Amino acid sequence: MALDAPLLEKNRINGHEEGRFTVTAKEFGEESKRLWKLAGPAIFTAISQYSLGALTQTFAGLVGELELAAVSVENSVIAGLAYGIMLGMGSALETLCGQAYGAGKYRMLGIYMQRSWVILVATACFLLPIYVWAPPILKAFGETNQISDAAGKFAIWMLPQLFAYAFNFPIQKFLQAQRKVMVISWISALTLVLHIFFSWLLILKLGWGLIGAAITLNASWWLIVILQLIYIFITKSDGAWSGFSWLAFADLWGFVKLSLASAVMLCLEFWYLMILIVITGHLPNPLIAVDAVSICMNIQGWIAMISIGFNAAISIRVSNELGAGNARLAKFSVVVVSITALAIGAVCMTLVLSTRQYFPYLFTNSEAVAKETTKLAILLGISALLNCLQPVLSGVAIGAGWQALIAYINIGCYYIAGLPAGIVLGFTFAFGVMGIWSGMISGIVLQTAILIVIISLTNWNREAQQAENRVKRWGGTSGEH
C-alpha cells in the first residue's frame, strides 16, 4: 500500500467528486518528511555516482595532461551520451514499477525490471559503434587527433561500463519504486570509498595510468550492479522479485515505446545546456567565454544533483499514489514538492549571486576568466532557480506517464524556441555568451510555464484511473499482492 496521510482525506477512484482540497501545516510537514526521506538518499546516491567519473578524471590528471583529456572527453562525450540514453530508457520503470507497487501488484515489478534489462542490453549493443569509432567521431567534432585517439582507446576499455548502465538503471528504478532508496545509497557510498582507494592504488601507486582508470571505473559500476542484485535475490525485495520469467519477453513493443519516449524526454533536457558550451566555442575569441561557461556548468552540475533527488522522489510519490488510486495525495505531493523546490532554488540563486565575486577563483587563476564568470553569475543564478523546479515538474510527468507529451514540449520549447533565440541574441545581435545563454533560459522558462499549466489543469482522478488501466494492460492482473 502507498503511504498514508491520516489528516488528509484520501480520494480513491470511486466516482465521487474531488471536493474541497484543504491542507494544514501539519499535513504539509508530514508530506514534506516523506519527500525528504526519498529525496535525501537519492541526492546522496546521485552525488556518489557522479563522483566516480569525476574522481577518475582527477586521478588521471595527476598522471598527465593527455590522460586527463582522454578521460574527460570519453567521460563527458562518449559515456555522457550513452549515460543519457540509458538513463532515459530505464526511466520508463519509474512510471510502471511505481504504479504497480502502489496498486499492490508487487510481482510485476520484477517482470518489468527484466523487460527493461532486455531492452537496455539491446540498446547498449546499438550504442557499441559510438565507442568503437569514437576517434573519427571526435575528430569530426573538431577534437585534436592526439586527444581523439587517446579518448578512443579509453572508450574501448570502458565498454563494460556501458553494459553496467544497462543493468543498473532498471535495478535502481525497481528499488526506488519500493522506496528502498537507502539500500542504493549505502551501496553507492561503499563503492565510492573503494573506488577512491583502488584509483589511487592502480593509477598512481602502481603506475597503470589509463588502464588502471578503466579497471577501477568499470569495476565500480559493476560492483554497484552486483551488490544491488545480491540484495534483491536474497531478500526477494518483499515479494517484488520472484525469479526470472519468460514474461520478460512479453509485450516488449509497448515497453520499447514508453522507454523511447522517456529517453527522448530526458535526453532533450540532459543535452540542452551542454549545447551552450559547444555554441559558445563558435564565438570570436571563445577561450575566455568557454572557460567561464564551463565553470558555471560545473556549479550547475552539482546543483542538478539536488534536482535529481527530488525528481526521483516526486516520481515515486506520484506513481505510487496514482497506482493506489489516491488522486488527492498525488496532487498534494506535487504541491509540496514544488514549493520545496522553489525554496531550494531561491537559496541556490542567493548563494550564487552573493558569492559571484569570489567563487570563480575556486576554479581559475585568470582574472579575465574570473571577471567573465562573475558577469555570467546572474544567468547562473536564474538557471539555478529554474533548474530546481523544472526537473521536479518532469518527475511529476514521469510518475504520471506523460513522457511522450513532455518530449514534444521539450522539442518545441528547447530546440524550436530557446536554442534559435540564443543563437540570434548571441550572434546576430552580438550579445555573445550572455545572449546565447539568455535565449536558452527563455526555452526553460517556456517549458516550465507549460508544465505548470498542464499540472494545474490535470484531472488527478482520471490519471489514477489510467494508472489502474496501465497496470492491468501490462500484466498487473496476473500479479500477486
Question: Can you characterise this structure?
Answer:
It is found in: Membrane. Belongs to the multi antimicrobial extrusion (MATE) (TC 2.A.66.1) family. One of its GO terms (molecular function) is xenobiotic transmembrane transporter activity. The chain is globular. Mean pLDDT is 86; it is low at 1-19 and 476-481. Helices cover 80% and strands 0% of the residues. The longest helix is centred in the first third of the chain and has 39 residues, at 25-63. It is mainly α. Helix 2 packs across helix 7 (159-177) and helix 13 (327-354) crosses helix 17 (460-473). The termini are close together.
Q: Which structural class do the helices and strands define?
A: mainly alpha
* Count of discrete alpha- or pi-helical segments spanning 4 or more residues: 17
pLDDT < 50 runs, ≥5 residues: 1-19, 476-481
Rough outline: globular
The total strand number stands at 0
Strand content: under 5%
Sheet with the most strands, sense and barrel status: none
Task: Summarize the SSE layout with pairings.
Blueprint: H1 25-63, H2 65-90, H3 92-102, H4 107-132, H5 134-140, H6 145-157, H7 159-177, H8 181-205, H9 209-235, H10 252-272, H11 274-280, H12 287-323, H13 327-354, H14 367-400, H15 403-428, H16 432-456, H17 460-473
Helix pairs in contact: 1-2, 1-8, 1-9, 1-12, 1-13, 2-4, 2-6, 2-7, 2-10, 3-4, 3-7, 3-12, 4-7, 5-6, 7-9, 8-9, 10-15, 11-12, 12-13, 12-14, 12-17, 13-14, 13-17, 14-16, 15-16
